[in-house]
Amino acid sequence: MDRRKFTFGMSLATMASILGVDIVYGALMPKGYQPLGLQDPDPFKLFNKDKEMVVLNNKPWNMEAQAHLLNDKITPNKFMFIRNNGRIPESIDVSNWTLTLDGESIKTKKTYSLSELKSKFQHHTYQLTLECGGNGRSEFNPPAKGNQWTVGAVSCAEWTGVRLRDVLEDAGIKSDAVYIGYHAADTHLSSDPNKEPISRGVPMDKALQDETLLAFSMNGEDIPLAHGHPLRLVCGGWPASTSGKWVNRISVRNKVHDGEKMGGTSYRVPCETVAPGSEVAESNMCIIESMPVKSLITYPKSGALIKEGQKLNINGHAWAGELEVSKMEYSIDFGSTWQNCSLEKPANRLAWQHFKATVSFPKKGYYEIWARATDSNGKGQPMVLPGWNPKGYLNNACHRIAVKIV
Ligand SMILES: Nc1nc2c(c(=O)[nH]1)N[C@H]1C(S)=C(S)[C@@H](COP(=O)(O)O)O[C@H]1N2
Ligand SMILES: [Mo]
């Protein structure tokens, strides 16, 4: 028999807790047998992902892209990273899906069906950059716990939905509103129904932006299950953890939302730079808001071989949270000199921007191409790792690829 079908030492209770329900005839199950429900399905097939995507964790599912997979201007599902904090909802009844608006600062608590949301409010479509706050975490030293993202926890898809603002205004917001927080249908890994895997939010001014959507489609189709079907909050340019998937409730708060993963070291960094490895008091930790300027060379793939005398066309994307990218440069001499890339305007605010350049190399040999974006406030990407923080967030060091001229 296939050895993978057996688990040793896992108690019935543990298996039941992972499954989220009792194993009714558990006492009759052969010893050491692993129930089919606990065997991992092929994640690439399950989520329609490309085979070159990299699985970082299976409980919960976390998967990232590699730089060269992100070459499309609009990220297709097959190359979109997955970041889950809990278990993906198993049964979604679209026809009975509702969104409730509540909280201290909502005038009237209100529940909308999904079809009501779609028919009552105007639809808007934006390309929105979503980057996990922990993208680049794998580089930090001392290392930070959590998914060891390299560069691939970023996407820019085209999201269609209604404006959160329109829905909030329909229900009515009190003048003391400070923050919104989302609640969603995914379940905690412990199966404790009273625990939420994540419940984050944004201040009112972000919640009320034109581009902040309650989205029901991605790239012109229903949102894929792993990315929040049937309804997702999308807050482009902010840590993607603020973009709640499978959202069924939005609370309008009269204080900073205090949901799961809003406090402690979660999605917060020291307000002032600290020495690597330092202990930081809670009161000195600040919530991450707009993401920093960053870029990615998506063509060619690192390790490319180029024939001597040939010019190389490179391209990629650059983004800067709430800001625009105003300059994009590359270097082939380890940052001694920089050349300009041509840089497109974003399709809309909060969409990543595409760059390209034609690179010539003086002779045969090994080179690295480094890329550096600068935002509209004049802030550029660092060459080396930026400020250490306990959870390894906000690594926006410049991306580099290796090429050989042969
Ligand atoms: N309900 C819910 N929303 C969620 C999460 C989650 O675990 N549950 N993860 C968040 C985090 S940390 C990130 S980075 C993004 C990832 O979005 P994606 O999986 O669609 O790429 O979703 C955010 N929204
Ligand atoms: Mo994230």
From TrEMBL:
Its cofactor is Mo-molybdopterin. It holds the Pfam family Mo-co_dimer. Residues 287-404 form the Moybdenum cofactor oxidoreductase dimerisation domain. Keywords: Metal-binding, Molybdenum, Oxidoreductase. Residues 86-259 form the Oxidoreductase molybdopterin-binding domain. The keyword Oxidoreductase applies. This is Sulfite oxidase. It comes from Flagellimonas iocasae. The lineage of its organism: Bacteria, Pseudomonadati, Bacteroidota, Flavobacteriia, Flavobacteriales.
